[in-house]
Design goal:
Blueprint: E1 2-11, E2 18-25, E3 31-37, H1 38-48, H2 58-68, E4 72-82, E5 85-93, E6 99-105, H3 106-116, E7 120-122, H4 124-133, H5 135-142, H6 154-169, H7 172-184, H8 188-202
Parallel strand pairs: 4-7
Antiparallel strand pairs: 1-2, 1-7, 2-3, 4-5, 5-6
Helix pairs in contact: 1-3, 1-8, 7-8
Length: 203
């Protein structure tokens, strides 16, 4: 089994209103992007940024129910890839030691793993087979498309540097307000950049 960690949320080129959840190997350099929907992306960004919604989400409700029933989550296991879909289980344990295996969408399982601070695993053969069979798709998701030579201009070349410089000039309070606004506007790429700047200052 290979342990993965959540590293980023990126725009996916297709379908529309889809995002790529980027999972990276904790002790290695393999990267697994998984296409998820807008709502799932928002939930993951909220959790990565430690932002609390005003009312409990469905994931919060699941946590409260499991705590009330004295059921402890142990890990998330991505155990199958079939017809373009990753399948995940949340492995939980009752107070008497009985193991409970809960079938879950991978995106929901990842949100809960972040909330519970439990590890995310994938079977190594699934990871290897997916990466070898989908090398072009993975490359497209992970790399920005190179602009045509005629389309290159100064603002395109320096956009990321410009954004980074502006974020560095902001106070923590300003960054936190901006992060909240980016999430509300569903600009998850910007939210990820703001979150990175906040974490850099906390380090």
């Amino acid at each position: 089994m290979v342990e993965l960690e959540v590293s980023d949320i990126r725009n996916a080129q297709s379908p529309s209103e889809a995002f790529a959840l980027v999972l990276t190997e904790r002790q290695g350099d393999r990267v697994l992007p998984i296409v998820i929907g807008m709502n799932e992306a928002r939930a993951i960004v909220l959790e990565m940024s430690k932002m609390k919604p005003k009312r409990p989400t469905s994931h919060d409700l699941f946590l409260q129910l499991s705590d009330a029933c004295n059921i402890v989550a142990e890990n998330v296991e991505i155990h199958k890839f079939e017809e373009g879909i990753f399948y995940a289980n949340i492995n939980m344990r009752r107070e008497n030691g009985e193991l409970l295996v809960i079938d879950s969408r991978t995106s929901d399982a990842v949100v809960l793993a972040l909330k519970w601070h439990i590890p995310i695993y994938i079977h190594e053969d699934i990871l290897d087979n997916y990466l070898s069979d989908n090398i072009d798709e993975v490359k497209n998701l992970m790399e920005n498309e190179e602009p045509e030579e005629d389309d290159i201009n100064l603002s395109d070349e320096n956009y990321d540097k410009y954004i980074s410089a502006k974020l560095e000039e902001m106070s923590m309070e300003e960054l936190e307000h901006l992060l909240e606004g980016a999430v509300e506007c569903e600009d998850f790429e910007m939210a990820s950049k703001i979150h990175e700047e906040i974490e850099k200052r906390k380090a």
